[in-house]
């Protein structure tokens, strides 16, 4: 059966590979917990005594959404219209509340009719945008490392991707001057995201300002993925909306998944220049409908009634970051400073390197031996090889116990 080349280029995806490994591990756990059939002589299959799975591979938090947001969803679910298809016009109340949020958060006036778009998660928006603004073969700039859906969207659009390597020695700052003018002239789209996943770097407004200047000079679209805007632990998170010329060629993506713990509810939005919002809306009209009005009611309640929820989360994540970093360092693992919530970005330990393990092999071996699941850095592009991403999505005590498991494994290598 024919399969498109673009799908083949996507590959399996790092989260899908991890999902298969976690599934295999849970099956081993289940087998170890099941007594052998009557009369069957058990044998040591290596599964007995396995520790429970500790999944630190996804930024899917254990923390809960604001109760007022859940209550708003529950109430709206009783209304028959919440079960109906939701077309763009029906999202206007949501878009108006987003515009009010933008005014409060950034001091920026936004037109809810022309400059705001509801999304089924910011990942959906960033993956679809290249289809809306690029022709096959157009050039697009992508940070390396980068979030997987950023590359996925470019592959689906058959773009020619140019990687801009981020150097840890330079604090992961993008060096836009490293690309020659000829390359800039060939680009049609630039995709950034600060605070940065996976490197756990907040970034600086000056970096976005420089990117916008480049975008204007070379007539290209600047897309900024900003789901962690309210989760900077050190410094102030940058935002495209703070640049006075964001309407000229910019679009920024925001999400309720991180700051309000609504990841599974899949609701987000984009704010951008009218031509970009219109193009993305036109594409989405072919691909999907909008989220239920009940979910929109929950998001509105989060913005209006729980605006300080992300601030509460930051204190929790700061404690988790500090305690987990200290625990890993005690186990001999180098832990760079993380300035945003949710992640640690860890270089492979020397013991793993001596064994010849790359990031994928280490993640697989670590899970098999300890039950702790991390995300291998190669899933975030070539620049992620040699790293592991750890998500701080369990209480500090569980994280420290996981550090002890990983430390014991490292000592045995």
Describe this structure in words.
With 413 residues, the protein is an alpha/beta fold. It has two domains: 132 residues, Aspartate Aminotransferase, domain 1, CATH 3.90.1150.10; 238 residues, Type I PLP-dependent aspartate aminotransferase-like (Major domain) (Aspartate Aminotransferase, domain 2, 3-Layer(aba) Sandwich). It has 15 helices and twelve strands. The strands form three sheets. A seven-stranded mixed beta sheet has the order 2-8-7-6-5-3-4, sandwiched between helices. Strand 6, helix 9 and strand 7 form a beta-alpha-beta unit. The longest helix is centred in the C-terminal third of the chain and has 22 residues.
Entry keywords:
Aspartate Aminotransferase, domain 1; Aspartate Aminotransferase, domain 2; 2 domains; 7-stranded mixed beta sheet; 3-stranded antiparallel beta sheet; 15 helices; 13% strand
CATH superfamily of the largest domain: Type I PLP-dependent aspartate aminotransferase-like (Major domain)
CATH class of the largest domain: Alpha Beta
Radius of gyration: 22 Å
Element pattern in H and E: HHEHHEHEHEHEHEHEEHHHEHHEEEH
In which range does the helix fraction lie?
Answer: 40-55%
Q: Report, as a whole number of angstroms, the end-to-end distance.
A: 44 Å
**Structural class by SSE content:** alpha/beta
Widest sheet: strand ordering: 2-8-7-6-5-3-4
Question: Can you summarize the main beta sheet?
Answer: 7 strands, mixed
What fold name goes in the CATH topology slot of the largest domain? Aspartate Aminotransferase, domain 2
| Overall number of structural domains | 2
How many DSSP helices?
15
Strand percentage lies at 5-15%
Stretches where pLDDT falls below 50 for ≥5 residues? 42-46
How many distinct beta strands? Answer: 12
- In CATH, the architecture of the largest domain is 3-Layer(aba) Sandwich
Query: In one word, what is the shape?
Result: globular
Mean pLDDT, to the nearest integer, reads 94
